[in-house]
Records
---
Amino acid sequence: MTFSTWSIRFDDPWWLLLIPLVLPPLVWASQRSLTGLGPIRRILAIGIRSFVITLVVLALAEMKSVKRTDRLTTMYLIDVSNSVPKDLQKAEIEYAAATSRKRRKDDLAGVVVFGKSPRVEIPPSPSELNLLAVESTVDAENTDLAAGLKLALAAFPDDTARRVVVLSDGNENRGSVLEQAQAARALGVQVDVVPIDYFYDREVLVEKVSIPPDVKKGETVNVSVVVRASEPTRGTLQVFQKADNHRAPAAGNESPVPVELARGVNVFTLKQLITEPNFYTFSAEFTPAEGGGDKRAINNVAQGFTHARGKAQAILIEGTRGEHVELVKALREKEIEVRVMVAPRIDGAGDVGGDILPNDLAELQPYDVVILANTPKESFTESQHQLFASNCHDMGAGLVMLGGENSFGAGGWMNTPVEKALPVDMQIKAVKVQGIGAMALIMHASEIAEGNYWQKVVAKAALGALSSYDYAGLLHWEGKEAWLFTLKPIGAGRTGMLRAIDRMTPGDMPDFDPSLLMAMRGLNAIPDAMSKHIVVISDGDPTPPSNRVLAQLVASKVTVTAVLTAAHGNDAGAAAVMRNLAIRTKGRFYNVTNPRALPRIYQKEARSISRPLIYEQTTPWRPNLSEPITEPVLGLTGELPPITGLVLTSPKENELVEIPIVSPLPGGQVNPVLAHWTYGLGRSVAFTSDAGRKWAKTWPEWQGYAAFWSQVIRWAMRPAERGELTLNLRRENGRIKVLVDALDKDDRFLNFLQIQGSLVDPDLKSRPIELSQTAPGRYEATLDQAEASGNYFVNLGYRGPGGVQGVVSSGVSVPYSDEYRELRSNPTALENLASLTDGQRIEWKQGPDGRIDLAATAREVDHFRRDPGLVNPRAFTPLWPILLWLAGCMFLGDVAVRRLALDLDWIAATVSAEWRKLRGEPAVASDYMDKLKTRKAEVDLQIDRPRAAPAATPEGAPPTSVVPQELQGLSPAAELAQGQAPQAPEKPTLAAGPPEAQGYTNRLLKAKKRMWEEREKDKDSPGP
Amino acid sequence: MVFLATLGCVKRTRYPAGVIAALCLFLAGCEPLARSEPDLVWGLHGVIPGHLHKPRTAAFDAQDHLFLADLTDRIQVFDRDGGFLKCWRTPDFNVDGPSGLTIDRQGRLLVADTHFYRVLVYSREGDLLFQIGDGVQGTTPGRFGYPTDVVTDREGNFYVAEYGENDRIQVFSPDGKWRRQWGGHGYELGEFLRPRAIAIDDLDRLYVADSCNHRIQVFDLQGKLLLSWGSRGTESGRMSYPYDLAIGPDHCLYVCEYGNNRVQKFSLTGDSLGLWGTAGRGPGQLDNPYALAVDSKGSVSVVDSNNHRVQRFRL
């Protein structure tokens, strides 16, 4: 770096005026005040002082060093989305590697790859790109060029010029690259573009399967398949029907049907008889004939769905098969269809046993209410938690949770979307907690794939499942075993703990013993812990725990659950070590083969120590009906049957929450037994005792049992659709258009309706919609950002004049990403990007065979060129900290120059003496020492004389003129040689006055007294 | 200026020379142990050839080519300055790599294939010659728990360290037949907790890094304990999880401390001669180093595992 690239600037140069204003007076004043110093020291002191002031002024003027650089960073932005053919993706990578060789010595090169989201593949580094393949995991189902460019801009170092090279087909289906281009331009970043060119000239796309959204039992519907072909071609088409997780060819379509496709859109229709009420999915698959030229198979499939409505239906999901037989029987008696499913248990391999539970909104469509009957949280995935809440809030279906040992807080449901949907909170606020749990997590899972990610997930899952009274601590390895956070009540600290977990990067733990001991000591230090539990996650290859430590754990009643992550395949030794650890300490052992099971294992473990939320008594007691009597309990007469237990909850503080049944026990708080409210478009109910097996044993015999439960469930159910509105959804260009045609029974337009509701996307995110009227009886709305493939649902409520109201719902399926819809590249978008930012457009050179000639292309391109459009940045470094520090040091120098006198004679003598000593010469006999002693004696005398003088000499005589007789003619050195202190014998003779008279203070006092006496005399005597 | 103040004090009160020396050192900001500038830092994080992903073990051959194994079960060969030469995979792979590499006196590459419970013997060119152990995990003679390192003596016998349910050293003849064993899981002298690395000197004395006991044990070839030193700590002479050791051409023992993030140099009798490295990510800083290797010039290349790189220095 040459000196010419450096300069200095001041942000507040006005402060510099202080230098001419302050320095001359300072020098003048200092010259006067420092006259006592010698000339050299005075000049030095004034110089330092002026320097200090100058430094402070420079700091106030915000002096900065400015470094101008001619280095360049080029970031390659590589499109790896599915729309770019694989062979061209390889060409992109080779192009980047080849052109990066033209970098100058100091230049940096880096790579960002992007699809739906971008990743930094190689951060800017001063080397050529050694890029053989893309290592980052990128979702290739979409193209977000704007996000890629944004990340590339963020990845640049500050102190170099910047250029981006975009390698893409230009087909973006998310974000807007032109907006980011403006940002790049503002930052002075050039964007070179290398358009990837392709054209699928003989591609076939199955665009959609169209079916009426709502059909009746016994109706025949037209299933229309829309196929688009870019050239006339041939192939076969087959339609499949799926219901209840069973997929089979549709009736009349048992074998593939040969079809001829014309250029453009082709529509094929199949008639289907709907015999049973259910939710049906129809999918159509096109298979090209041999030599048809269709390149991409993924866009040859599409699906659509419809719902044939029957009578009201509920789905009941229970933890143990047959646990709710009485309830189901009662509901069926009351004409409610109930589908019973059993939730799986969680184990290391994932879900064990149980039925296949609904995984998306489409599968929940046939049910008007979902009943979660004594099932713990970990039996469901997080997306299922969200699904139940969303199904209620956005789709208007009911949600009912029945109590039991695995329900509400005792089932670990706190902090879930389901808790949010229910009228009660799982955390209890003011009740005596019956013993707390303490859990220490030991983390050692860094070697499994994405180990650090999973460790964070499980730690968070465990914290989420513990109540705020419980203690939690987390131990990890950071060069030694260490607490990430020590054991403490979760309470208000939960957020801090979660933050700490986010920052955690545990290392590879060598041995178990120290961590187990540390955790045990922590747990033993909690005095009131009812259960003390350690959960170790490990691949089992640290040095096994010793018998001594295991015995200590058993003696301290600490249980250890060992979670083995199968990092090293089928490792029997590791499994044995972990199993032994769990068995010896009475914990559980999990051999995890499916990491997705991990969070739920941790939730289960956390739940096992957190049991203060159940209230049970052997003596039954009666819950009470409470005012106001609401619809679910309308008509109940007499007393309610007794219960012996319930899960403690607290009602949400919301006006919509009604608590028609409460329990008097435990006292001191409101204990809801039945609570309900309206949640979004749906309704939800909480019943905190059980349905009749353990705590409400007498309820099934109660004559009001069936009436009570059917009323509760019916209240929660989604209201039946009125059929006055026709809802149509269309998806075009990444948008969903919602169209409603409103006609009454006499086919007259329904005008001035207020229609609003929500759209639920495949990620179960809900967005509100409000429709506006565009014509008589026609209402419309358009929703952006519907690029993701999957099922979209729209659920609308409407209200209008004359008491017209109801709900209507429909869905649309996006079979594949828009990546597969593009038949040709879009170089224009990229050209705009280059021209906006002064970049270049690079054309691929082609060889004689028409294929890309990479070497020829790279030869003529220089992405590290210095052209006039390139902005060389300047790096500013504030200098005020250095200036102030220097000023501080110099200030001390100023003090030192004034206070310390350097005795050069003494230094010279010492150095020469040491030198002689080193050379082995005899030291010059205390010549210097003699002088020193003489001087010391003189000084002592000078000190002593004034002390003694006032008492020994007549008033007014100069004290220094008296030299005691005894000292005259006697050298102090000789005296020292006799071992006598020079002043010692003098004191008694000199101290003629009282001892206190010798003090300096006394002399001052005397002088003062004398002065007062003289003033008094002056006053008394007459004036002249 | 502070120096002047010091002289001023000396003039009046005569501080001893040691105090002056200490003061000067303090004022100059010198910490006697802190020389940590590496001569070379190299390595990029990644799984493609030439890149490193948590490298775990290293060894130099006579030509000063560095053999490195990382978490992806690859053995990669680099020149002394980190220039990539070649790469191959061990026969089976998982998500963990071998934890011991040695170039024996014949120039063969010995690989402790930890998670496949065997020792692999490769030719100089990288051809697999034979393996010791049947690849089945076990505690019986001839089988391994997790083999961690292997060396050969002058007669060509193999000494294999292992941990797991049985922490021991097993001895095999030059043709791979089981001869004897010693050690055991424990804290006592002669026992081991994770013997993570072994080295052999010119006099055929075996140095064992007894990692979780934080000590070095020295044995003769029959397993008789000759010497032991070290305990857990950060002071000079103490150790925290010594994970690798190597004897340099200067006949000193270099120990890589996983827990203390440093390299400590010992005489062969256990006197601490120097420390290098602190925890961190910068040059001269280490993040859980697993291994080291000493080249013919006496420079140490330490495998800075969690920083996915190698640092070379002299101590």
---
Amino acid sequence: MHTLGETRSRFLIRAWTAFVVLAIYLPIACGALAGLSKGRYFAFPVRVLSGEWWGKTWDSFEIHVLVQNSLLIALLVTVLSVLFAFFGALAFARYPWKGRRAFQRLLLLPIFFPQPVLGLALLLWFNALGISPTWKTAVVAHLVWIVPVVTLVIAIQVFSFDPVLEEAASDLGASRLFTLRTVTLPILWPGIWSGALFAFLLSWGNFPLSLYTAGADSTVPKWLYSKMVAGYTPMVPALGTMSTLAAAALLLAGGLIRILVRRRMR
Amino acid sequence: MSSVASPTPFSPAAPKTPRPVLQLVDVCKLFDGFAAVDGISLDIDEGEFVTIVGPSGSGKTTLLRMLAGLESPSDGYITLRGELINDVPSNRRPTCLVFQSLALFPHMTVGDNIEFPLRVRKVAPDERRRRALELMAKVRLPEDYYAKNVMLCSGGEKQRVALARAFAYDPDVLFFDEPLSALDYKLKKLLEKELKDLHRESGKTFVYITHSLEEAMVMSDRIGVMRAGKLVQIGTPEQIYTAPADRFVAEFFGEVNVIPVRRSADGWLRRDGRPVAVAPGLAIAGDEASVVVRPEYMRFVTAEAGADNTISGTIFNEYSLGSRLQYQVRSRTGRTFLVEVPRAAAWKGDGEVTIGWDAASAIVVGG
């Protein structure tokens, strides 16, 4: 039995959820449809559906290079940023030292910096150093923006870590390394995983930084943009949809791994 | 023997039997100039159960952390079996601490938690498992808990896991930092007894800290009372209870009547001008003192049963303590006294009473 008020609030919650989901996914669905259109140009409604452009996208050598570039950048950024962020997060969330609060604020700043400006600044800086921009400089640029984000994500986990556990491990005879391996790292794994996922997805989808700092090397978002500006083909929405689906698959896989790990614990 | 830097000269007394396993000499710990532990000297004998009690902030946890190697002393010496261990890190000490929060590893099973110290020592998995199951039986954990997630255990079970883990390390001395404080009364009582049994069976030295006098009384061979970083008194529960060193210790050990007195020119101790009789031989330093009378030594004075010291007043509260009754009596001068009598001796008359106590049952403490 539900009162009228309860029924009404349930309805409102459902309606609101549906609205949010629609608002987010309808545009993506439209993009996906555009990629499935048989026509050469972007027009609604789609008259004839076909997988032709998906096939072309899948087989295109140009796209292969793009995906390889984006993957390489994203993987490198993931590994490096998790490494930096893990120790950074430990530093300010685990150990008390003078200036840790200032460090925390300073670390946050690049996140709020508009990315195009940051990209331009980095490009000027690379020029000043005499480094010509390639995908390698893009990695550095991505790191500048992504390391703080990942640090924050991992720090959330570190904040909930009880330092007494490390003391207990030491008291039971464990060395620092043994403690790190068997106590600290396993407990922080969920945070590190989330951080790695964030790093990968943020790098994979990043456009403004890549635009300025990747030089002649192209990435998926860069290519999508340039084709939208001039030389549209339905490969654009096709690749966009593929990219979105891949990201979704990655997130799902991440969640699945976590569930499996938790189940093994019991 | 010409070797120097040995701390033995600090204990010139001939070795007692049993030999002290832990010796503290003038141990201090300063935090930014504040002395959390302020010059504590103490010998703890092999196989002893010593409890340090004190209010929060008295420095007892800091003291324990220094003994466990989680802090190093700012001054003084700590020796274990005659060896100076001031700067020996916790993972190199044959001691183990059961933390207040228990510090169980949340990502491990009960079995993995208990086996942790064995894993550190690279004991083979089969042997580890055997030892863990043995210890689980010892602390009365069911065998099928071996593979259970430790976070799914109840408070009492977690306690047992922590204990088994500490025993798995096989330390010479076990430290306890108020591990029972978060448990409900009944479980606490049960675990106190079990801990005492474990102490007897294992023959290991236990150093326990708590703010609960009751806990200390039940379990300890000796009790040390700490206040503001100093060890105020150390002795058997009996000694601490019957002969508190000062007013602080007396008051810490339960409800007491504290009667401030002054020494007058004729040598008598006087309360508001009236002489107070105390047992001979209770010497005090200075002119200000307190006469301490436990509520169970106070009684109602009648024509038939007198007392060495008497006070008249009015009953204004009566509490039932189960088998005993406690009365609050307000004297003419506005002071409140506690009288505790067996239920059979309940006061039958009106509110106007005379209460009193015998000189032999009072203690005189300084301050």
